[in-house]
Amino acid sequence: MTKYHILIVEDEAAIAEVLCAYCTNAGFTVKHLDSGRSVLDYIKENNVDLVLLDLMLPDVDGITLCKSTRLFSEVPIIMITAKNEEIDRLIGLEIGADDYICKPFSPREVIARIKVILKRAGNLTSKLIRQSGFELDTEKYSATLNNQDLGLTPIEFKLLERFLKSINKVFSRQEIMDSVYSGFDDVSDRNIDTHVKNIRKKINKIAPSLNPIISVYGIGYKMEF
């Protein structure tokens, strides 16, 4: 069974403790951050399945974080706030939040809402990967950038899928070969380099200034935005 990774961003220690306990008891893997400073980097560097995001944080507010997250990720976001006015709820949803919970709340209700959203997201993410203008349909083997077809070969598709699933993770050439060329014995580093070069060309044909696949000297490649 999938163990979902929940990121809780909450500066009130008592509330964070309760949310962490209930999420852990529900079988989720939990990470707690008490400020907004490292939220974006954490989402980029980890496979987060859902974010519980407090609206009022001591440094970066939740709306700003939600809007910034939506520039590169479709991770589900539930906003948590003490504000109960309708305008605040509308603002939260309009900038990309998937749900909105007002304090005080029932922890059991939070868990129920998390499960509903994860189930809904799972039906989409099992087939679709959306990231920073890219959209990959793993069932149809189609890949687009800014709604334009990239025209990838099957191997290029697998390689781009690997990168998009783990933004900022450095993959060695051997890791890439093991995951993308399973069952092939006559594959070398040059094959990987050639495919990366071809993917870059196809990306640049659509977005000339976009260069997300980075060479890491002596190791391999990573994708960053």
Task: Give the proportion of residues in helices.
Answer: 40-55%
Unreliable stretches (pLDDT < 50, length at least 5) are none
- Write down how many β-strands occur, each being a DSSP E stretch of 2 or more residues: 12
CATH class of the largest domain: Alpha Beta
Query: Which shape, going by the Cα principal axes?
Result: elongated
Number of domains: 2
In sequence order, what are the helices and strands, one letter per element? Answer: EHEHEHEHEHEEEEHEHHEE
User: Roughly how many Å is the radius of gyration?
Assistant: 19 Å
CATH architecture of the largest domain: 3-Layer(aba) Sandwich
Class of secondary structure makeup: alpha/beta
Percent of sequence in beta strands: 15-25%
Measured distance between first and last alpha carbons: 31 Å
CATH superfamily of the largest domain: Response regulator
Strand order of the largest sheet: 2-1-3-4-5
CATH topology of the largest domain: Rossmann fold
The overall average pLDDT, rounded, is 85
Q: Major β-sheet, in short?
A: 5 strands, parallel
User: So how many helices?
Assistant: 8
